[in-house]
Structures are given as structure tokens and as C-alpha cells.
What does this fold into?
Amino acid sequence: MRYEIAQNFPKDMIFGEPGPLISLYQPTHRSFPENKQGPIVFKNLLRKLESSLAQRPDGDSSEAIMKPLYEIRDDSDFWMHTLDGIAVFASQNRCVVYLLQTPVKEYAVVAERFHIKPLIRVFQFTEEYQLLGLSRENFSIYQGNRFGLEELPLPQDAPRTMKEVLGSELSAPYLSHGSYGGAGGTTMYHGHGDVKQEIDKDTEKYFRYVDTFVFENYSKSAKLPLIPVALKEYHSDFRKISNNPYLYEKGIHKSVDGMDPDELLERTRAIIDEIHSERIRKATESFAKAEAGSMGSSDRSRIVRAAFEGRVETLLIEADRNVPGKIDFETGKVESGDIDHPQFDDILDDLAELVLSNNGTVLILDQEAMPTDTGVAAIYRY
It folds into this structure.
């Protein structure tokens, strides 16, 4: 097989591969019969690439760079296992394919650099998180991203249930008073006064154990947002005693045992989307402050110069804005040109690569989320 499947972005080949370079994006489908359209759309995009490559004086390179794409075109097994989109990057040396769980718009271009804006957008909000499924009786830990999650195994010798944790310290009232409501459900107690106080003490001891255990064994090393999943009444009790700095301020108010995996993922996505929206809001607010203090700009020429000098800390780019041309990474010079010509692509895309190559942060935003009308905004390091 002449192509490889990539999981992480940016891949090592993104920076420094000699041109010509091919970038292809295409929406795909997971199931039959919609996925039968994949090869047809792909063939049409290949024709556009062939036409662009034909304009290059070194036409001999076309066969080598297109060979793995022809293999993808004819690989029926590949098209039977696509997800929601693909991104294909090809040079004369390598071909890398991303199977995306997010739809992308059709785009195919030959240029001196890879077109990476759509891929940045796909991967910019795929940070992982952890979930804490909590009840008075037991707990569980999950980890995932917006596309899926899985339960993490606990050490075999680790106490998990309240009875295992408290052992002989478990109060007599807790043991003697009946409970019902199902796994993870609300526990109903018959008794008043001292009985309830003893039960509350047991719950507090157990929650303190869970909080310490989760931090020491998971949060401390992963450093990921921890989203609590529990019945509403448990949230405030747990937050009162928690010392975990990664515990997220919002959670899911339902028993983890009362949801199937799809519902749990859907509810988690809603919270993750809030985290992402907050990140965008903070980035735009930071830009406004930076611009007011002459440490930010929306002027494209100034931003290109600052990026070339390695001074851009954060770059915001409008997702659907293209500025045909290229940036010379050796001189910082900007040149306008026809996007269908194999030496040109999108200046904003080159700008994104330039910032990433200098360890800056790039966010691709919808037009309505952009703090400027120029399609670009930058926060400077100095």
C-alpha cells in the first residue's frame, strides 16, 4: 500500500516536504448506499489535480505523486470503511490519509505547501476529557473526546464501593436502613435525625476517598477536565469536599448507570462544546485587549511580517476566507496568484503553517465568531 493512515495532527510530513504538494478534502459516508458516491467524487477531484499538475514544467513528477491517489481511488475496501470525511496529503515521497469524523468541504489543490486550515479546524477541539460516574454506592472513570469514550480500568486491588472503602467504619444506620432505587439511583432511607447524620458522614468519607483516588491515579497525570456524572443531589456534596483542580464547573445531572453510551456521549458533547465556546470567547477577548495595547493586529500584512519573525502567539483565521497567493517562508514576502495554478494556494493557509511552525496557536473560526472583518486576527508575543 502506497499510502498511510494518520491519526494525529500535525503529522511530521506537514512541514518541510518539497513541492509539488497535493491537498485533497472530501466529505464521505459511513454506510451503503451513500458510500458508493465516494470513489466518483474522488475521481472528479483527481481530474482537477491532474489539470493543475499539467501546468508545471516538471511534468515527470506527476506520475509519482499521483500513484498513491490512484490506489486510493481503486481500493474498494477503503471506500467501504470511510467515516464522515477524508483529508489526503501527498508529496513525491509520501501519501498520508486522515479518516475524519467531521464532514469537510470538497477541496483539491496543488501548491508548494499543504492546505491545512480544514484539518486544523477538525483537530483544534478534539482535546480529551475524563468523566467521573459517581453515586453513594460506587464510582467509575471514563476518558474520551467528542467522538467517543471508554471506561478506564481501576487497579484490581483498589476499593471501589462504599462498603469496600469504609469497611468496619461504615455506620450501623447505613447498614440497617433499607435502600432502593436501582443501580446509581436515589437511595431512600427510613429514619430521621441521628440516622441521617451518620449516613451523611459515611457519604462524605466515601466522596473524600473518591476525590483523592481519582486525583492521584488519573487527574494528576492526565491533567484533563474532569466532568462529574451523577444525580443532581450528589453534585453539590461532592464539590464541597473536592480538592481536584481539574473538576469541571459543570456536570451531567443523571446517573451514569441510567444512560446508554450514546446518551452519555451526547450529553458530554454538549459540555465539551461549552468548553470550546468559552475558549473562543476568551481568545477573542484577549485579542481585543492585545489590539488595544498594540500587541495585536487585524492587518494581514503586519501579521505576516510578525509571523515570519516568530512573534505571533495566537492566530485567529476565518474558516471560509481564502486569499489566493503564497508566502515565501525564506523571505516573508507575500505574492498574489491564481489558486488554480500549482504554485499558489491560500495566503491565510500559509500564514497558519508559519505560526504553527514557530510553536504558535492557530484557531479556525466561523465568520460570526471572528473579532475582525479582515479574516484574520493575531495576538503577539512581544
Remarks:
- The mean pLDDT is 90.
- The longest helix spans residues 261-292.
